[in-house]
Design a protein that fits this description.
Layout lengths: L1 E3 L4 H4 L4 H8 E2 L8 E6 L4 E6 L6 E2 L15 E7 L4 E5 L2 E5 L4 E4 L6 E5 L8 E7 L7 E3 L6 E4 L8 E7 L10 E7 L5 E2 L4 E2 L3 E8 L7 E7 L2 E7 L3 E5 L6 E4 L4 E8 L8 E2 L7
Parallel strand pairs: 1-3
Antiparallel strand pairs: 2-21, 3-4, 4-11, 5-10, 6-9, 6-11, 7-8, 7-10, 9-12, 13-14, 14-15, 15-23, 16-22, 17-24, 18-21, 18-23, 19-20, 19-22
Length: 276
């Protein structure tokens, strides 16, 4: 498990491109037959990828979190972004097609991830937050999630928002997760942008063409920086940072938040005139 420490916005102003990438960018999430985990001190969230190909892969506790089982003090959100697969939670099997979501509550002991086919293996993207109580393990199919249309073609940000883990959907302790899909011809996400000083956020970009690139904007509104990202990469957004971007083609991203509250609309909007 790789550790990432919190940074002060005054420090981030002076980071080189490489230093920005070291602190905030998460690459190579899906390693065959392995669990890739990054622990950020921003609200102590863990981001990861699990990529079973020819055999099952277990998500277990470790010395880094001082826990015998991974969910001893945590809750977990799982999205499948590859071929169909299954997640076994304490012996109960949940089938996940592409873009399906599974929430696993605090206290679950055995977590086993498998692919249905090694020719088209599953890719499980996970986000985990600390939890003080237990909510039931719940699966949500992509096809059954209500969608909300945002933006417009004229402003190149026509997109479909789907909320999976939230106050009116899958219940959780503090984890909030959803998915946003950009329509063909649209490239901007989360613009006009915002910050929410009470919660951290992480974006995972996928369904980008192999040669396409995402220009993810971050930093304080008057001190913006950018990261150039490619398909299947994630970026950590501290509470003081904006989080938005544009790509060279359409794409989908999964957003996950944890912190003070679960109120989706708890955000401080940034006027376009404030951006520097």
């Amino acid at each position: 498990m790789e550790m990432r420490y919190s940074t002060h916005p005054e420090h981030a102003k002076h980071f080189t491109t490489e230093e920005l990438r070291q602190h905030y960018l998460i690459q190579e999430l899906f390693v065959p037959e392995e669990v890739k985990l990054v622990y950020t001190h921003e609200d102590r969230v863990i981001i990861g990828g699990i990529h079973p190909v020819n055999k099952s892969v277990a998500l277990e506790g470790s010395d880094q979190i001082k826990a015998e089982t991974f969910l001893e003090r945590r809750e977990l959100g799982v999205f499948n972004v590859g071929g169909s697969g299954t997640v076994k939670v304490d012996g109960e099997t949940y089938e996940l097609a592409i873009k399906d979501c599974l929430y696993v509550g605090k206290g679950a002991k055995e977590l086993i991830f498998e692919s249905d086919s090694s020719g088209k293996p599953a890719k499980f993207y996970i986000v985990s937050a600390l939890a003080h109580t237990t909510y039931p393990t719940t699966k949500q199919s992509f096809a059954d999630v209500p969608s909300e249309s945002l933006g417009s073609q004229e402003t190149a940000n026509n997109r479909m928002l789907r909320r999976f883990i939230h106050d009116e959907g899958i219940q959780s302790c503090q984890l909030v997760m959803g998915m946003t899909t950009l329509e063909n011809g649209s490239v901007w996400n989360s613009m006009p942008t915002h910050v929410h000083d009470r919660r951290m956020e992480v974006y995972f970009y996928f369904e980008l063409d192999e040669n396409a690139r995402m220009f993810h904007l971050m930093g304080e509104p008057n001190e913006t920086r950018h990261l150039v990202m490619k398909n299947d990469e994630a970026v950590i957004s501290p509470p003081w940072s904006i989080h938005c971007g544009a790509a060279t083609g359409s794409y989908t991203f999964i957003w996950g938040m944890a912190g003070e509250n679960k109120t989706y609309k708890d955000m401080d909007q940034v006027a376009m005139s404030e951006l520097r």
